[in-house]
Each structure stands twice: as C-alpha cells, then as structure tokens.
Amino acid sequence: MTDNTVKIDAPIGTFQIGDELRVNRLGYGAMRLTGQPGNFGPYSDWEGGQKLLCRAVKLGINFIDTAEAYGPGLNEELIASALHPYTNGVVIGTKGGINKPAPDDIRADGRPENLRRGCEASLQRLKLDQIDLYQLHRPDPKVPFTESVGMLATLKSEGKIRHVGLSNVTIAQIEQAQRIVPIASVQNRFGISERDNEDVLDYCTKHAIAFIPYGSLGAHPLKQGAPLANAQGILALIANRHGVKPNQIALAWLLHRAKNIILIPGTTTIAHLEENIAAASIKLTEDEIEALNQM
Predict the structure, then answer these.
(1) CB neighbour list of residue 153: distance below 8 Å, 6 or more residues apart
(2) CA 206 to chain centre
(3) Which listed residue (28, 70, 86, 134) is catalytic?
(4) Closest alpha carbon to 72 in 94, 50, 47
(5) How far is it, in rounded angstroms, from Cα 224 to Cα 209?
(6) E-only strand ranges, the chain
(7) Whole-angstrom Cα distance, residue 75 to residue 129?
(8) What is the mean pLDDT of the chain?
(9) φ and ψ at 252, to 5 degrees?
(10) Distances (CA, A) of 104 to 67, 95, 221, 222, 280
C-alpha cells in the first residue's frame, strides 16, 4: 500500500476530548507493544515498536492509548522513545490505579497515594509536563470510589493532568465522578460481538463524553489474536462485498455506531496497522448497518 491509500480518511471525522483536544476517531492502542505473555516486561522488538508508532503518527493517528500497567511502565517508555518530542496535536492517554507485579497478577489499587505516585511516574516515563488524558484503570473495591476520583481531581488542579477519564465503570459511577471533576472519557469493553456496555456508550454519547472501546475485535487483554479477524456470517458477507476483511467491517461499524467513539485497535505489525486504518474509509450502507446492528 502507498501512504495515499492508507492515511486516515477525513469522513470518519474527529472528536474533541474534553471539548478541546481534537483527535481522529481512529487511534492506536499500544498495549501489545510489551513483553509476552501477559503484556509484561519490555517489548521484544523495541526498534520495531518505535517504527510502528512513528508510522501510525505519519498516517494520521493522533491519539495513542497506553497505561502504567502495560509492562508495567515499559510501554510508556517505548512511546516516549519513539515519539518524543511529540508532534503538535498528538494526544497521549494513559491509565493508573493498577498494581501488576507479575504477568498473571493484576490488582486494582485506587488509593490516592498510589494514583499520585503512578501519575508522577507516568509523567517521567512519557517525558511530559502534563498528561493529556489520565484515566482510572479500574475502580478499586477496597477504596471508596470518591477518594480515587478525588485524587485525580487534585492532580488536575495541580496541572499534572489535563483531562480525567474512567475505565471499566458503570453509569452510576460516571455520574458520581462527574460531581467531583469533569469526566472527559470512558474506556469500557465494547464491540460488535460484545455489547454489554451499550447503555454506558449511549450515556456518553448523550453527554459528549469520549467513549474509547477496548476489545473492539473480541481479543482477550492478555492473549494474542483477534477472534473477529476470521468471523463468518454477516460480517464475512459484508466484508466480501467491500473486498475487505471481517475485522475491518467490525471497526467500520463502530465508527458508524456513535460520533463520540474513538477506536484504539492494537497491533504489532505495520501491515495490520494499515489494515485497521483502511477500515476508516469503509462506507457502510444503511441496510448493512442495520444487519450488523441485529447481530
């Protein structure tokens, strides 16, 4: 493919995170650029990861999603090594509130002191004075939710966070958090084959909150592969009609689903990156969208 055929197509539009950070609605989730198994340790092809990140930005991706838990910390370091100093307009979103001492040992830690430590460590690793979007990775059942959100509000007032986001939350938790600090984004699992969070998406759409679905191709967070890449049925039928792959139709459907959706499909290859970007140019008909809605 040439650059002209894979650059993000303008018709997919943009969304303003927090009413001010305008990003293309097809971003990049960097989680897979870590050691395996379990997204633990340094990425085995550090230079290749740098090239992939640079390619993503060159092709128009200006929203990069990461988290302290990826590596942990090493994914943020890789992003900085590839993209710092950041091109004007590139938005980095990261997450805190997880303690991950081993590949299969993932614990929520929403204590205010841990969130402060995590945010300040992310600032150093990303080589930033302020994090554009800092999200609570997961509510901690051992810590009052308001205390976790309250620390994010404090970090925002100190200028260390520009916008606050939440991940893996309910509508009630979003509303509770909104009473403490403006919430700019919500990152929950959602895709054409997993719609348990549809009510959260609709709430975010109504209130102009960015909705950043993870697992949009049915992938397990700690395992390689995307199940929808080889999907059959209506996905495969529509994909054949457009001369593309089922996973590209799944991404295109999400872009059609709501104007506040920002996609963050992850990959470790430039070829797959360009394939994901090409999905942004797929124009589904009303009949195709309705058929996909009924899946």
Answers:
(1) 164, 180, 181
(2) 20
(3) 70
(4) 94
(5) 30
(6) 14-17, 21-24, 28-29, 63-65, 91-96, 98-102, 105-108, 131-136, 161-167, 183-187, 210-211
(7) 18
(8) 93
(9) -60, -40
(10) 16, 19, 11, 9, 34
pLDDT tens string 239-268: 999 999 999 999 999 999 999 999 999 999
Decide if pLDDT at 74 tops 90: yes
pLDDT at 218: 77
Measure the CA–CA gap between 285 and 189, rounded to whole angstroms. 25
- pLDDT computed for residue 8 by the predictor: 67
Residue 250 near residue 192, CB atoms below 8 Å = yes
pTM value? 0.94
Specify the residue for token string 């529509």: 238
Residue-wise pLDDT tens digits, 94-139:
999 999 999 999 999 999 999 999 999 999 999 999 999 999 999 9
Which amino acid would we find at residue 168? N
Residue 6, classified by CB atoms within 10 Å of its CB into exposed (0-12), middle (13-18) or buried (19+), is buried
| Known active-site residue 86 | no
